[in-house]
Design brief:
This protein has about 290 residues and is mainly α. The protein has helices spanning about 5-30, 40-60, 70-85, 90-115, 125-130, 135-170, 175-205, 225-245, 250-275, 280-285.
Length: about 290
């Protein structure tokens, strides 16, 4: 369904799609929680079904980029709804909400700035369409929609578990509360790094189209935005550690780190090397991450 939409009508359309997906997810959670399912499993089911809805609209509009805002919208909204669902509003939960909404605002803002409309698909997806036409629908559903959803959910688990543990283990030592504060500050610093990197990149590309951005944070790392994203999820885990300790929930930020180091960054590196002649020299002189 290829139609012409303005940028703002496209944003309105995306918003409507996400509201609908959110309502469907809420219904799944509403009728799953307490029916022999733990609340976390019910939330996972709602997340998966909402992703399927967004994926289906991506098929309808022949654009995988319909999924892109899911990454930034789902975590803060769910963290807030989880507070209402559990009735837990402890200090750790409030800090988690502040951190996640700041991060989500930054990422959604950057999406809105770079979004060109429902007819424009991100270069990563068009590349997969052209390279693997026979397998594209499988790659689309699992690799481009469902896997990111599951990785984000895994990375959110320390935060979701924080609600319960912050009530059970609320009387903690000063050291543990300092660790909570450090995790919170790491989250804020991560989103701020991304915010600064966004502006520096946008300003540089406007003034020097086609050239390699090597100013500001980009002078100290080739992917400061990805660095901030990885660090944010370690910050969420860091807020959980004083309450839950060192356990298997560390797999969430590990999976997130692997996703960026194994897929997102190599894709971007390959594109930059192919499109920007100066990138090879920049790559030799500049670290991968800050």
């Amino acid at each position: 369904m290829k139609r012409t939409y303005s940028k703002w009508s496209s944003i309105a359309l995306i918003t409507a799609i996400y509201v609908f997906a959110g309502l469907v997810g809420w219904l799944v959670f509403r009728f799953s929680a307490g029916e022999g399912w733990s609340d976390l499993y019910a939330l996972l089911a709602a997340d998966v079904v909402a992703t399927v809805v967004v994926w289906a609209f991506g098929l309808l509009y022949e654009n995988v980029s319909v999924y892109d805002p899911y990454w930034s919208v789902f975590p803060p909204v769910v963290f807030l709804l989880w507070a209402f669902h559990t009735g837990v509003w402890t200090l750790p939960v409030i800090l988690l909400l502040v951190a996640s909404f700041y991060w989500g605002w930054r990422l959604t803002r950057n999406w809105a700035i770079t979004f060109k409309g429902i007819a424009h698909e991100d270069w990563r997806y068009t590349k997969y369409r052209s390279l693997h036409p026979a397998l594209f629908h499988l790659i689309n559903f699992f690799g481009l929609n469902m896997v990111p959803t599951l990785v984000v959910f895994a990375a959110m688990l320390p935060g979701l578990k924080l609600y319960e543990l912050s009530t059970v283990n609320y009387q903690l030592s000063i050291i543990n509360y300092c660790l909570l504060g450090i995790g919170f500050l790491v989250c804020l610093a991560s989103a701020t790094i991304q915010l600064i990197a966004d502006k520096q990149s946008h300003d540089f590309r406007a003034a020097h189209p086609g050239e390699v951005c090597n100013v500001g944070l980009w002078k100290h790392g080739r992917h400061p935005n990805y660095f901030g994203e990885i660090q944010f999820w370690w910050g969420i885990w860091g807020m959980y550690v004083p309450f839950g300790g060192l356990d298997w929930y560390i797999l969430g930020p590990i999976a997130m780190t692997a996703l960026f180091l194994g897929i997102s960054i190599p894709l971007m590196e390959h594109r930059q090397l192919a499109n920007k002649p100066g990138y090879a020299d920049y790559r030799k002189q500049t670290r991968l991450l800050i």
